[in-house]
Structures are given as structure tokens and as C-alpha cells.
Amino acid sequence: MIRNLLFPLFSFCLIASCKDTLEINNNIVKADKLYEEGVSLLEKNDVKAYLKLQEAISYYNKESDFSNISKSLIVQANAQKNRGDFLGAESTLVEALKMMSENDESLYSLYDTMATLKLNQKQYSQAIEWYDKALSVKIESGQKRLSILNNKSVAEYKLGKYKLALDILQKLDLSKLSDLNLKNRIKENIEYTKWLDNNNYEAQATIENILKLKLENSDLWGANSSYAHLAEINKKSNPEKSLYYAKKMLDIAQINKSPEDRLEALEKIIYVDKPTNTNSHFITYKNLSDSIQNSRSDYTTKFAFIKYENTKVKAEKAEKENQLLWLSLVLALLTAIFIVVVILYKKRQKRLQQEKEIEVKNTQLKMSKKVHDVVANGIYQVMTKIENQEDFDRDKALDELEFVYEKSRDISYDKTAEEKEFSKVISELIASFTNDTVKTFTAGNSPGIWETISSTVKEEVYQMLRELMVNMKKHSHASHVAVKFEKTNNMVEIQYKDNGIGISGDLVYKNGLRNTASRIEAINGTITFDTKIEKGLKVNLSFPVS
Question: Which long-range contacts (CB under 8 A, 24 or more apart) does 122-129 make?
């Protein structure tokens, strides 16, 4: 039967292996095409770009091409960043980072994208850390390195570190830079940072000339930045000119379809425009701000849905592909496991039953012996003394009978402690001393206190508390008794307190408490009798958690 199962299984695996080999190149070709389509759509339709890249990832994943998977994820993160889904973009980058090797060629791009995300969220110190990481690895071109350094200088001057930002910018060699837009941005940042460092610096004329070059080169995003800088430079010295540049920035932001830049332009307009126009501007600002938030939420949902649907489809497809391969093997394996489990279960049940019967017999013998030795012999001994004594001492006989009674309680404890939660056993012990004249209270006696305490230590604690309570009943004349439990720093602390007549230090060990001291020593604990309180007795017990 096994041979009949293995032969078709081997044949199926061989066919599947050949088919996979033939499909490898096809998968890579499809993935590369989808990747290029996604990149080309990035500036036009971020959602479609994200979808194309997700499809590319599914093909790269078939070939375990982690380098291209991570590269696709980085572009996806840029799509999310463009639409304000900053947290989603960060999550995508972390996913990509987990797949990348130390020498991955896209590592600098991931760091740079993460830094820009932090910059957009005004987390400037973190942005600088990520820019430094990008600069510490291999970068594909000197031009890209200049761009990263320029962005790092922006984060520095946003933190008010103008001289440090200038130091970065003025060290850049622009002589071989072919990207005119980047060159203009760097030159303008130098002028603007100089003005930030010294508001008396004449930067306006130079920035206006750079603005003309940007417009001639159709660099509208760069022009948006120039208008923002010029509006800021004139905000206090020439509000009318500042208003002019802020409105120009608003126009360019609308052309660029950048609601975030429109919002920034409105902020600048509100600051310098006439008070009579403030309300109108503020309403526009509020509506735009709400629209941006709604749009970000909408895009976050769309990106998440694409990833979820793709993951779901991929999982369903993989499940169908593997179903036929594993069906026969799983059925045979389950049958074998079921037979083994049934056999082992029956053996275990039989063994547990035998162990339980032995345990019950041993417990019964132990309890029987204790009852005979402690209770029966103790009562018989008291009866003998009464019978043979001419002068019957009633109090002495009661003390001896109480001793036998307490021993019987010990036997009861041996059984109940096994059946009940120890915290309940302790609570019942203390509560058993409550009567018409004595009220008992417990605090902090939760099950968690005793979780890691050994049974030996629990028994000693039980006996110590019983001795304290018996001593209280016999000697203290207390009306209120409180016992507090607490676990701190691997130590259990127990505080006993009553309002009785108290006890002097030299009588502590003569008053039925000598066993308590020896028991606490046996569990490496300490006991302190506070006999100097105004009224009553206070005893502190502490011992380490085993």
C-alpha cells in the first residue's frame, strides 16, 4: 500500500519540478514588467502603482527573489508617503529591511525614504539618524549622495542648527552636478539658511534669481519652495510682499495638486493678511485640513486592502496547488497518528488509574495512622491521667485536650491543603478564630502570593500563623486581629497585628511562640516582635520566594 502511494507522489513531484523550472524565467519577466509599470505610475496614480508593485512582488516571491521584493516594497512605501500614509509606509519599509542583506544595493534608498518620512512628520532628530545611515552605505551615484546631504541640512536647520546645516551645504561640490533642479535647491538652501542664522543677511535677491531659473526649467515643486522661503523672509519686514509670495505659493500648490503645500500657504496668508479676511481664510484652512485627513485615511484603507487581498489570493492559490500533493500523504499520516494516539491514550489512562488507586490507598493508610497515633492515643492519654489523678485539674485537662484538637487540625490541613487553593486555606484558618468577642481580618491574601511557594514552606507558614492565632486566643484578650500579606522583590512579607494586652520581649519565647521562631529559621526567613507599640502585639514575618 505504501509503495502504491509513493509512486504517484514521486511522479507528481517530478512533473511539478520540471514545470517550475520552465516557469522561472517567465515569472521574472512578468515581475520586472509589473515593477516598471508601477514605477512609471508613481507620480500619476499612487494606488495603481501600489497595486502593480504588489503584483510584481507576488511573482518575485515565487522565485524567492528577496532583493527585488525589497526594492518593490521601497517604491510602495514612497507611494504611501506621497498620500500621507506615513505609518503604513514605515511598516512597509520595515518589511523590506527584514529581507535585505548587508550589501543590498537598495539599502541606501530604504534609509533615505525612512528619513524623508521622519522629516515629513517633523521628527527631525530621527530623520538625521536615518540620513546618516543612508550616507554610511554604498550609494549608486554622487548626485544621490548630494541630494541626501541637502535633505539632511534641512532637518538640521529645522532643529535650529543653522551653522551645522551651512557647514554641510557649503562643503558640497556642485561643479559636476548635472541635475539643474537639485543644484538650484542646494544654492537656495544655502541662502535661506544664512538668513535663518542672521535675519539681516540679504538673501531675497539671490533667491528671486534662483526662482526665475526654476520657473524657466519648469521646476514647479522647486518654485513652491522658493515662494515659501520668500514669504517667510518678508513676513515681519514687509507683510504685503510676504502676502504676495504666499498667494503665489498657493497658486503653485494648486497646480502641483499638493494639499499639504496649500495648507502651508494658507497659514502664511492668515499670518500677514488683513484681520477682516482672517475668518474666510480660516474656514478654507479648516475645510482643507479636514479634507487632507479624510484623504489620508481613505488612502491608508486602500493600500491596506490591496495588500490584504493580494495576500488572501496568494494564500488561496498556494493552498489549491498544495492540496493535491499532500492529500494522500496527510490522510495516511493522520490514520497512523490516530492509531498511535489511541494506543498511547489507553496505556496512559490505565497507568493513571493504577497510580491514582495506589495514591488513594497510601493517603488512606497515612490518614488512618495519623488519626490513630495523634487523636486516639492523645485522648486515651488524657483519660488515663484523669482516671489516675485524685485531684482533677480541669484547666490542665482542657489544655491537653486542646493540644489533641490542634493536632487533629494539622491532619485536616494535610488533606484540605491538597484540595484547596492555599490562599483559601489561610483565610479559613484565620477566620476560624472569629467569635462574638474577636474579629479577624485579612488583606492581600491573593492566590498570586503563593504561586511559586513550595509545599514545605506553605506548611511552615500555616503552622506559624496558627501558633500566632492560638497565642492570641489564649493570652492577648484582643478584640481585633489583622493579618496582611505582601510579595515584593522575591520576598513574602506577613504582618500580624492585634489590639490585645501585648507581650514583653522577655516573654515572647515563653508564650507558645518558640516554635514560630524555629519554623521561620527553617525557611531562611526572619521574624520581628514589635512589643513597643502603644497597645497590642505586632509581628513581622518575611521569607524568600523559593
Answer: 122/158, 124/155, 124/156, 124/158, 124/159, 125/155, 125/159, 127/151, 127/152, 127/155, 128/152, 128/155, 128/156, 128/159
Q: What are the grid coordinates assigned to 448, written together?
A: 498570586
Buried b (16+ CB within 10 A) or exposed e, 460-487: bbbbbbbbbbbbbbebbebeebbbebeb
Q: What is the distance between the alpha carbons of residues 449 and 165, in angstroms, rounded to a whole number?
A: 58
Residue with cell 508564650: 511
Cell representation of residue 410: 494539622
Say how far apart CA 489 and CA 481 lie, in whole Å.
Answer: 26
Positive or negative: CA dihedral 107, 111, 113, 114: positive
Question: Do 417 and 458 touch, CB atoms closer than 8 A?
Answer: yes
Written as nine digits, the cell of 456 is: 514545605
Residue 200, SS3 per DSSP: coil
| Cα–Cα distance, 474 to 500 (Å, whole number) | 11
Relative orientation angle of helices 394-419 and 275-370, to the nearest 10 degrees: 120
* C-alpha cell read off for 443: 488583606
- pLDDT tens, residue by residue, 120-139: 999 999 999 999 999 999 99
DSSP string, 433-474: T--SS-EEEEES--GGGGTT--HHHHHHHHHHHHHHHHHIII
Instruction: For 468-499, write each residue's pLDDT tens digit.
Output: 998 888 888 899 999 999 999 889 999 999 99
Q: Work out the number of other CB atoms within 10 angstroms of the CB of residue 130.
A: 24
* Interaxial angle between packed helices 204-216 and 180-197, expressed in degrees from 0 to 180 and rounded to the nearest 10: 160
Please, how many CA atoms are within 13 Å of residue 146, restricted to the half-sphere of its CB? 22
Nearest of 491, 488, 477 to residue 537 by alpha carbon = 477
Cell triple for 206: 539671490
The total of other beta-carbon atoms located within 10 Å of residue 417's CB is 17
- End-to-end CA gap in the chain: 56
| Confidence (pTM) | 0.55
d(CA 159, CA 131): 15
Which residues on neighbouring strands pair with residue 544, listed in sequence order? 491
Q: Which residues lie below 8 Å from residue 452, measured CB to CB, with a gap of 6+? A: 545, 546
